[in-house]
Amino acid sequence: MKAFNYHSAKSVKEATKLASSGSAYLSGGMTMIPSMKMRLASYKDVIDVKHIKELQGIKVTSKGVIIGAATKHSDVANSKEVQKSIPSVSSLAGRIGDAQVRNRGTIGGSIANNDPTACYPAACLALNAIIHTSDRKIEAGKFFKGMFETALKKGELIISVEFSIPEKSYYFKFPNPASRYAMVGVFVAKFKSGVQVAVTGAQSSVYRETAIEKALDKNFSASALDGISIDSSELNSDIHASAEYRASLILSSAKQAVVHCK
């Protein structure tokens, strides 16, 4: 690990003021710290934001659930408010990584990193999330740009994530047995306006699976997906799973998500 200057920010204003072209924000550090240790990444300044009160906590409104960016996965998983309003998000958080990751990792860090196999991006996309930052509000559909790439500008800090409350939803993940990352994860959310289905782990970034959405809009049942064919031409293929196998997992995971929707 190369030397850096460490800063512990007490407010959003202080954190953004410290930011520069050679800096990075630190919250849970689940990806950032290992990357620095292996010298895959280096920064002149590391700005610790996990103690900023503005970035913590969970708030439920009549239309949505707002989760502070520095809120840990374990806190979301154990939140009675989230369990009641959007149980699928609570369940998702409780199945991220292992106990160590859940007690250190944060929602803001997860979506800012945008690992192609991460779980939270699927929830953001399926639940019409709004990402509140130090500068603006960004719709989830415009936030995730590609592998480890988002719409965040240099020095821009995520403040909170606001999820819309669906009629029913569920996230089904087929995890890598070692890392617990999603080889394929499918989040199904049913709104009055229609069904939204987001897939993670299958491409370079999270995406909406429109073929499944259209079928479920007509008939919200697992059997409605029996005749669906998932195009594997743009899916990931690696030592863990071929593109064709991932296509099969997307369909079977979507069916399981529908069955468990509540």
Secondary-structure topology with pairs:
Elements: E1 5-8, H1 12-18, E2 23-26, H2 32-37, E3 45-48, E4 58-60, E5 64-68, H3 73-78, H4 80-85, H5 87-93, H6 99-102, H7 107-113, H8 120-126, E6 130-133, E7 137-139, H9 140-143, E8 144-146, E9 149-150, E10 158-164, E11 168-175, E12 182-191, E13 194-200, E14 207-208, H10 210-218, H11 243-260
Write up this protein.
This protein is of the alpha+beta class. The protein has a domain at 168-260: Enolase-like, domain 1 (2-Layer Sandwich). It is 31% helix and 25% strand. It contains eleven helices and 14 strands. It has helices at 12-18, 32-37, 73-78, 80-85, 87-93, 99-102, 107-113, 120-126, 140-143, 210-218, 243-260, and strands spanning 5-8, 23-26, 45-48, 58-60, 64-68, 130-133, 137-139, 144-146, 149-150, 158-164, 168-175, 182-191, 194-200, 207-208. The strands form four sheets. Strands 4-5-10-6-7 form a five-stranded antiparallel sheet. It has a four-stranded antiparallel sheet with strand order 11-12-13-14, sandwiched between helices. Strand 12 and strand 13 (194-200) form a beta hairpin. The chain is globular, with a radius of gyration of 18 Å.
Radius of gyration, in Å, reads 18 Å
CATH A-level architecture of the domain at 168-260 = 2-Layer Sandwich
Q: Averaging pLDDT over every residue, what do you get? A: 96
Order of helices and strands: EHEHEEEHHHHHHEEHEEEEEEEHH
Question: Would you identify the CATH H-level superfamily of the domain at 168-260?
Answer: CO dehydrogenase flavoprotein, C-terminal domain
Can you tell me the residue ranges where pLDDT is under 50 for at least 5 consecutive residues? none
Overall shape: it is globular
Strand content is 25-35%
Estimated helix fraction: 25-40%
Distance between the termini: 46 Å
Q: Which class of the domain at 168-260 in CATH terms?
A: Alpha Beta
User: In order across it, which strands form the biggest sheet?
Assistant: 4-5-10-6-7
Tally of contiguous helical segments: 11
- Number of extended strands: 14
Output the structural class. Answer: alpha+beta
Question: Major sheet, described briefly?
Answer: 5 strands, antiparallel
**CATH fold-level topology of the domain at 168-260:** Enolase-like, domain 1
